[in-house]
Write a structure and sequence with these properties.
Layout lengths: L13 H15 L14 H15 L3 H15 L4 E4 L2 E4 L9 E2 L12 E2 L8 E3 L18 E3 L8 E4 L7 E4 L6 H16 L4 H10 L6 H16 L25 E4 L3 E7 L5 E7 L2 H11 L14 H11 L5 H20 L5 H18 L10 H30 L18 H27 L6 H6 L3 H11 L9 H6 L13
Parallel strand pairs: 5-6
Antiparallel strand pairs: 1-2, 3-4, 5-7, 7-8, 9-10, 10-11
Helix pairs in contact: 4-9, 5-6, 6-7, 6-9, 9-10, 11-12
Family: Belongs to the type IB topoisomerase family.
InterPro entries: DNA_brk_join_enz (IPR011010), DNA_topo_DNA_db_N_dom1 (IPR013034), DNA_topo_DNA_db_N_dom2 (IPR013030), TopoI (IPR001631), TopoI_C_dom (IPR025834), TopoI_cat_a-hlx-sub_euk (IPR014711), TopoI_cat_a/b-sub_euk (IPR014727), TopoI_cat_euk (IPR013500)
Pfam family, one: Topo_C_assoc
Amino acid sequence: MFAVMKDTDYAAKPTFIDNFFTDWRKVLGKNHIIKNFELCDFTPIYEWHLREKERKKQMTTEEKKTLREDKLKQEEKYMWAVVDGVKEKVGNFRVEPPGLFRGRGEHPKMGKLKRRILPSDITINIGKGAPVPECPIPGESWKEVKHDNTVTWLAFWNDPINPKDFKYVFLAASSSLKGQSDKEKYEKSRKLKGHIQRIRENYTKDFKNKDVTRRQIAVATYLIDKLALRAGNEKDDDEADTVGCCTLKVDNVTCMPPNQIQFDFLGKDSIRYFNTVEVEELVYKAIEGFRAGKKPGQDLFDKIDTSRLNAHLKDLMPGLTAKVFRTYNASITLDGILHEETEDGTVLEKIAVYQRANKEVAIICNHQRSVSKSHESQMTRMNEKIDELKSQMEELKADLNKAKKGKPLGYDSEGKPKRNLAPEAIQKKVATLEGKIEKMEMDKRIKEDLKTVALGTSKINYLDPRITVAWCKRHEVPIEKIFNKSLLAKFVWAMDVDPEFRF
């Protein structure tokens, strides 16, 4: 496990090495000859791994096809469930194989051994009277078999690294149950439209409440609404030190007169949230007050916690959570930008508007990614391709001028005489090439613009798909240009939406 990661950044991190070696020593046992990590040479295993990779690369198309078919046959019986008499696809039914935990950012448990999950770790959920799925390992049995029709999970087990967390098997995103659940989620966020003005008036009034707790709840609700912050949960010492609204520390927040606040903390998945925002004067004064007299590591919101804030949100609107705010603000932002900025133009121009709107949402939700290592080389290749197409365009235009004057077109790059074409035929080629160049230029701009932004997360989790489908219908943009195959399957319930739908 460690050997195959030899050339990754993880293999050089002290925490990763220490955790790996500690867990490995437990597997080896007390009296094993291996005592010192520095004396271990993983090169022979790593070289074997490289040879195996190369061997698989060299396999013929036919061999790869046979392997795929064999794998599919083995998995077929686990891929489906029958719900109310209807055959539905199961989502991710595969249990992760043993490996070394990586985590996001500087996770304190990186390098720990993810042990093998056995049937005796797994609880199954099936209908009463349904046959219990066959246990794949002889001599093993499921931990428990339940018959709970009030939940949507089909199986679960404890995470081997964080035992308080659970890993679940659900129906696939394309299933009718999941589609129904998604639709209900977005409908709940749409309901917030009818409450949002009252909620904002409510928390604005409490910015100057004499009760510190009420004041902290008001400011926290404001930050969740305006900045799409997550509520945040308390962390144990062995969990990644990530932060949400309620768990902000004094040193995560800097007041910059007259009314700017700088936030700097690790959010979900250890992704840094670094943002300077202008806030209302009363919010600025309140945050200054919450910081006063406290040390850097102390809680900014010391009078409230996540459960207290969540209870308050549910009093404002049944089912209201920080996630409902995020979904509402993401969807309303996409809907507004698409409505205001989409003009008549080519499909490419309309897609560029959609990408800009999607980017705005991703920024609001802090959906970032690091610049890929191959970004520069990809941009170089794109520039080279564009230059090549432009050279072809110059040549075509020169040919067009000659054709209009009735002159021979001369010779190609290999010294062969060019076939004489009518000006109209060359003009068609020019138009086709112009389209190619325009598309490549647009792709290049979008790629550069989005190099640190992850658009996928908001599309999957926070943007009501009906906004996108209706916009595509109104502006005659093929939905396949916006949604990939998996999203088309996930959002099949949204496809018959009226073209005039607004969030």
